[in-house]
Amino acid sequence: xxxxxxxxxxxxxxxxxxxxxxxxxxEIGLLAISEGRIVAKWHTRVIPHPGxxxxxxxxxxxxxxxxxxxxxxxAVLRGVVAFLRWxxxxxxxxxxxxxxxKVAFDRExxxxxxxxxxxxxxxxxxxxxxxxxxxxxxxxxxxxxxxxGIGLDVLRRDLLGxxxxxxxxxxxxxxxxxxxxxxMMARMEWA
Length: 191
What we know:
- The protein has helices spanning 56-62, 73-91, 103-116, 120-124, 134-137, 139-143, 152-160, 170-186; strands at 8-15, 25-34, 37-47, 71-72, 96-100, 127-133.
- The protein is of the alpha/beta class and 191 residues long.
């Protein structure tokens, strides 16, 4: 993979738990990557969709309180669609690469919310079948003994030399995910 040719979106979500069918989407962050460089950022908090849970463990990780604020979930998804369309137009490319710390987790929460609000096709069609999952890529340095795990907090520490920060934030997590990807790709040999 050549980062200088990478056009995609780094996506991170903060959630009310691990189950997209019953736990709330709380925050979403997006970084637009054009030819390996960050060219735009988008971030918002989400008011939990009615009937969706925020489990105590998730609230602790995200710093969620009932005064969380943000925008209604449907409005947030419309904002995501607008951001994706703008970015696709700006790079004159039809489909984007989904980039994330744990792509499957983030994609499932975005998919579930997009289905609830009738914009699944608009979001899904923006992305190609390719993705870049930083946790999967981190298996290489993990097996070589260069890092101690594949979670974002561990990657931040082992690859970037950064201490664990307080609450998770979707935009900061996007930035850290991309920095970890750059660091891993710059060092192709881990033996």
